[in-house]
Amino acid sequence: MKIKLLTLIFPALVLSCAKLPAHYYEKTLWEENYVENSKDDYVLHYNEGSISKVLVIDGSKQTTLDADKNPIKLSDPNKRPYFKTISGQDTVTLYNRRIDFEDIINFRDIGGLKTQDGRQVRWGKIFRSDNLADLKPTDFEKFNNLKIQTVFDLRTESEIKGKEDQLPKNVRYIQAPTVKDNGDMLTQLRGKLLRGEISEDQSFQMITELYQNIVTSDLASLRELLRNILASDEPVLYHCSAGKDRTGVVTAMILSILNVDRKTIFDEYLMSNYYRRDKLKKILRKAKLGKIIKPKINLKVIENFMSVDERYLAATFDVIDTQYGGIDLFIKNQLQISDQDREQIIKKLTQEN
């Protein structure tokens, strides 16, 4: 009888959890011209009225984009193409922001963002992602074509165990945790979730404390990590488990150093929900099925842990603004990046727009 009951319930549960709230399907980072990709298809979205010509650079091949053949199919799917939009005397180079790997869903380039002084973050220098335990050997050529020389893993020893990054041998791997390792904390947390012992308010508080700790109790780790990332002359990548929380804070700090405005920083941060929505749907679908056996599971608490929320990152900036006197003083005093050093970093990692 139980099997029959589950057979009847299962389709209803799947259908009822088939779609997330609308904001998960909406891009938060809107750019006038941008590239989207899915596997080997690359689509350039641009204002045809203001751009006279578009060149497609696919490996060593350069062609003029035919508007009727957009998206384009790559001649070599392992090489990242780029586009040059020409308007009068101005040429702007555009790359796809998200890099599409088979089982890595939140791998992206933070380049192309505008700074407050009219410059642009350089493409192909700094990448962020979720963990790389599922990077396959068949992905290695594509990964190496990004020229990433160093990967910084922000996870703790406990998180890494059994989920080690799978990387090409030529890539340097550095473990650089931004929070303290509390051993089996994740196992304990999972048990509490299953028993319904964490409320929505408690989950929100736990996450905001994690964000704030990165710039307070774990500040030394953050400082060292940022120094290493920003000092690199070769492309680098950093990641945590899902590439959204610790990775999101680190990205926010890098973009702040590069003088990107706070709204753009938040918009880029919230893109994790857009890229991870299918993963979140699967997690919530399993959790909803789990409620048959563990009825105290709180789906909203799970969503809180598995998604990003602007209030989480806002909590980090609140600490920076109230305790440290604002982001510029935080960069100078707590991150120990002098004004002169910051100017050099901006010069290296941004370009005239």
Strand fraction band?
15-25%
Using only C-alpha atoms, the radius of gyration works out to 22 Å
**Which structural category do the helix and sheet elements fall into?**
alpha+beta
List low-confidence stretches.
Answer: 1-17
| Sheet with most strands: strand arrangement | 8-10-13-11-12
Q: Give a quick account of the main beta sheet: strands, pairing sense, barrel closure.
A: 5 strands, mixed
* CATH structural architecture of the largest domain: Alpha-Beta Complex
Helix content: 40-55%
Mean pLDDT: 89
Give the beta-strand count. 14
Seen as an oligomer or otherwise, the chain set is single chain
- Taken together, the total number of domains comes to 2
CATH topology value of the largest domain: Protein-Tyrosine Phosphatase, Chain A
CATH class of the largest domain: Alpha Beta
Order of H and E elements: HEEEEEEEEEEHEHEHHHEHHHHHHE
Looking at the structure, what is the overall shape? globular
Full CATH superfamily name of the largest domain: Protein tyrosine phosphatase superfamily
Alpha-carbon distance between the two ends? 67 Å
How many H/I helices? Answer: 12
What can you see in these coordinates?
This protein has 353 residues and is an alpha+beta fold. The protein has helices spanning 2-16, 140-144, 157-160, 185-194, 200-214, 219-231, 246-257, 262-290, 299-306, 310-323, 327-334, 339-349, and strands spanning 34-38, 41-45, 53-58, 61-64, 72-73, 82-87, 90-94, 108-109, 119-121, 126-129, 150-153, 172-175, 236-239, 350-352. The protein folds into two domains: 2-29 and 103-352, Protein tyrosine phosphatase superfamily (Protein-Tyrosine Phosphatase, Chain A, Alpha-Beta Complex); 32-96, Immunoglobulin-like, CATH 2.60.40. Helix content is 41%, strand content 16%. The strands form four sheets. Strands 8-10-13-11-12 form a five-stranded mixed beta sheet, with helices on one face. A hairpin with a 2-residue loop joins β6 and β7 (90-94). α8 runs antiparallel to α9 (299-306). The N and C termini lie far apart (67 Å).
